[in-house]
């Protein structure tokens, strides 16, 4: 039995007769699927179990994937850690990295739970049609979501659509990605048909469950990743171009990253955490991401100091224009020794006549202060107002690689226990959909529509429109397809940075990650070693993660990704 539990990392769930519960009810015994699905509560508890296995280390580590890009530093002593490239080599993602193993296992646990539910497609007489349909819809959604996560990270993966009960059944080679994508699309289509609008959940205990809108949004995203632009545009239009839409932008950008902003009007899908419930086996009722990214204890932003695993670079900060729409450029000078980390010194330039190079973060896009901690940031005062932690502060020396730490999800001691947080993790929100929709419109040559969607995101933070930016910067952005696509990419970095690995995944699917890495390392940015372009060894192998070593050992039919 112990050996079987290792196979593909999923047997721990495949052999479970029911998944651990998530919200309010907890299975007390090991019922078989045939005897468990009898009542509304049984179906709801089975669905809750699927959500439960989505929590834990993999979900909390997803934002860390942005550390592969040039936009973040990582580790205490150098830019050479779990993810970051160093010495011109591939990003250092090891096949033995715990994140990849647990992500693989947890996603397959969710798939196993979903498959258990989807074998019960005949409604018992005493189960309501509403709960029955919703539970099947949730199972299709979770399975589609889990498989999409896996193919995005690993490429080809084993595909299971029925419960597996024997050793031989799980010894399966990797299924071609194209076949998995076909299954993902079918699952999201079925979920879309079965799930209710999120409006039916708002104001009820069911808020946070997958909804029809979530299925539509992820289906549109799958089409974007597959470059099926017409299909993507259809899904996004059904979410956006309708009267009384299910979603809208949160009026104040920063609010959605606080506990009282969870599952709000902008939220489409979040990983749910609840400190009042017991954690499923191997999972966590509390979110540990805050512990990973918190500045040191001296900042007084948490119960204890964080690890500073994700520290935004000045290169990233340069993406944020002035309030008047002008670019800002930083040039590294040197470092000043300090504790716990050095202070990085820069010169700053901008053509904005109101720009003050001695106060380079003033009059900048408001999303900068709500994404990146910097010394004397006004966001510290907002943090104090929200938490009551009067001694909270941030200094450049608190970061060990860049002068900065991540702001999002840092909620202090609000409901937390130790270094953990009750905050949900936002996987998909409406601004993401608007920008994905804009991207599809660019590829469909509907530039005016794309511009209007980008402007809607920028209007929320009172930034100049795309048309105004073009005039200010002296370049045609709104009317030039190539320029508009480049600006759309930068807008996604500004809007979605350090939330769910969006920047790394975007760079990979746009096929610009290698070129961005090379640009960074050949420029000698931020005082790190400078390499000639011929010395760099970056390849597109880094677009996928390695199959976890443990799974390779357990299943000899699995073959490793190139480059690992």
Automatic annotation (TrEMBL):
Sequence ranges assigned to domain RagB/SusD in this UniProt record: 266-564
InterPro entries referenced in this protein's UniProt entry, alphabetically: SusD-like_N, SusD_RagB_dom, TPR-like_helical_dom_sf
GO (cellular component) term, any one: cell outer membrane
Keyword terms, alphabetized: Cell outer membrane, Membrane, Signal
Name the record gives this protein: RagB/SusD family nutrient uptake outer membrane protein
Main location class: membrane
Family note: Belongs to the SusD family.
Domain SusD-like N-terminal, residue spans: 101-223
Localization of this protein: Cell outer membrane
């Amino acid at each position: 039995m112990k050996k079987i539990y290792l196979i593909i990392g999923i047997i721990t769930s495949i052999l479970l007769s029911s998944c651990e519960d998530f919200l309010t009810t907890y299975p007390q015994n090991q019922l078989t699927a045939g005897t468990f699905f009898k009542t509304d509560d049984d179906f709801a508890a089975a669905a809750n179990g699927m959500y439960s296995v989505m929590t834990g280390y993999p979900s909390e580590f997803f934002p860390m994937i942005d550390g592969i890009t040039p936009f973040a530093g990582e580790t205490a002593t150098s830019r050479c850690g779990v993810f970051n490239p160093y010495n011109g080599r591939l990003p250092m993602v090891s096949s033995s990295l715990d994140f990849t193993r647990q992500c693989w296992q947890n996603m397959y646990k969710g798939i196993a739970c979903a498959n258990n539910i989807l074998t019960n497609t005949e409604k018992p007489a005493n189960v309501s049609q509403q709960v029955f349909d919703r539970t099947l819809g949730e199972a299709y959604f979770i399975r589609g979501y889990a498989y999409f996560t896996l193919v995005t990270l690993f490429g080809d993966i084993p595909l299971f659509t029925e419960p597996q009960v024997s050793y031989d059944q799980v010894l399966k080679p990797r299924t071609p990605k194209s076949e998995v994508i076909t299954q993902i699309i079918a699952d999201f289509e079925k979920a879309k048909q079965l799930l209710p609008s999120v409006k039916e959940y708002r104001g009820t205990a069911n808020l946070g469950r997958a909804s029809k809108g979530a299925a539509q949004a992820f289906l549109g995203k799958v089409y974007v990743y597959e470059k099926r632009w017409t299909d993507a545009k259809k899904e996004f239009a059904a979410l956006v171009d309708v009267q009384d839409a299910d979603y809208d932008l949160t009026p104040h950008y920063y609010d959605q990253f606080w506990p009282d902003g969870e599952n709000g009007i902008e939220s489409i899908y979040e990983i749910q955490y609840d400190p009042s419930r017991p954690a499923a086996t191997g999972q966590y009722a509390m979110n540990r991401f805050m512990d990973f990214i918190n500045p040191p204890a001296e900042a007084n932003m948490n119960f204890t100091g964080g690890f500073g695993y994700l520290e935004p670079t000045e290169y990233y900060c340069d993406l944020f224009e002035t309030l008047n729409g002008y670019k800002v450029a930083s040039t590294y000078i040197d470092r000043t020794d300090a504790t716990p980390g050095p202070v990085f010194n820069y010169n700053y330039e901008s053509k904005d006549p109101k720009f003050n190079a001695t106060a380079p973060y003033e009059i900048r896009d408001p999303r900068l202060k709500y994404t990146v901690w910097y010394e004397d940031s006004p966001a510290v005062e907002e943090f104090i107002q929200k938490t009551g932690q009067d001694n909270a502060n941030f200094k450049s020396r608190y970061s060990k690689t860049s002068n900065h730490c991540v702001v999002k999800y840092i909620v202090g001691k609000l409901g937390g226990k130790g270094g953990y947080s009750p905050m949900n993790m936002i996987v998909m929100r409406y601004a993401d959909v608007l920008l994905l929709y804009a991207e599809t419109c660019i590829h469909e040559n509907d530039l005016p529509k794309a511009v209007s969607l980008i402007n809607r995101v920028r209007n929320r933070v009172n930034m100049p429109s795309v048309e105004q930016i073009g005039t200010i910067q002296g370049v045609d952005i709104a009317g030039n397809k190539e320029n508009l696509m480049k600006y759309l990419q930068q807008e996604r970095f500004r809007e979605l940075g350090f939330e769910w690995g969006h920047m790394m995944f975007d760079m990979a699917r746009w096929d610009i990650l290698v070129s961005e890495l090379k640009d960074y390392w050949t420029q000698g940015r931020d005082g790190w070693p400078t390499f000639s372009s011929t010395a760099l060894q970056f390849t597109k192998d880094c677009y996928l993660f390695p199959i976890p070593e443990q799974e390779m050992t357990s299943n000899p039919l699995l073959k490793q990704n190139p480059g690992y």
